[in-house]
Design brief:
about 55% helix; rod-shaped
Length: about 220
């Protein structure tokens, strides 16, 4: 088994979703409403493109290291790893015309390419067991995803400068919260002042009433 790691370049935001392109595979793109969905879609897109190239008898491109990939500001690079059984290599062979026709008929009946059919027949003749689809080292995948998200998180943090839309939105949110707190505090202060005024008036009224009752009591 061989692991190929391709660089993907992500653009977008949480409102409009994200898209990714691939410098080494310019014919394909991937998309998703969030970064998690984008990573999954990118892996599926790369795997399908590699299968298409193999079916067409084309060699796979050599992955470019992430440090050698240039990109515009605001673009987030991330890695897409694909585990494959073997990397295809173009070879020239001589084969009889009738046998070649039978190979093509057998490949078409099985929904396979000529190259895939010949490779499968060769593995069977060599006693190799066919790979079981879906059998994966989940611990290794989890570790790779964790490392990938750590790198992606650092990239996102680095890209969020003081003038980014994220920071502008957070500043606006903080201002609204501060304004709400200020208005609430003012309302509480005003309510307390009104309560003190009411208590003071009530106290003066009670004093005035006592003063008015005092002479009448003295006359009796």
């Amino acid at each position: 088994m061989t692991t190929l790691v391709f660089v993907a370049l992500a653009q977008g935001d949480q409102q409009t979703g994200y898209t990714a392109s691939f410098p080494d595979l310019p014919e394909i793109t991937a998309g998703g409403p969030g970064m998690a969905e984008l990573v999954t879609g990118a892996r599926e897109a790369v795997q399908k493109e590699l299968q298409r190239l193999e079916s067409d008898g084309q060699e796979w491109p050599r992955p470019t290291p992430i440090e050698a990939v240039t990109h515009q500001a605001g673009v987030i690079p991330f890695l897409v790893d694909i585990t494959v059984e073997d990397t295809p290599v173009r070879v020239n062979i001589s084969i009889g015309e009738r046998l070649l026709k039978r190979i093509d008929q057998g490949a078409e009946a099985r929904g396979m390419s000529r190259s895939g059919f010949i490779a499968s027949a060769a593995r069977t003749a060599l006693g190799d067991r066919p790979a079981s689809p879906g059998v994966t080292d989940f611990d290794a995948v989890a570790r790779k995803l964790q490392d990938e998200w750590s790198v992606l998180g650092r990239k996102i943090t680095d890209s969020l400068g003081p003038d980014s839309a994220f920071n502008r939105n957070m500043t606006e949110f903080d201002n609204k919260v501060s304004e709400t707190i200020r208005k609430t505090a003012d309302n509480i202060s005003a309510a307390m002042a009104r309560r003190k005024d009411a208590e003071a008036r009530s106290s003066r009224d009670e004093t005035d009433a006592k003063d008015q009752d005092a002479p009448a009591s003295a006359g009796h």
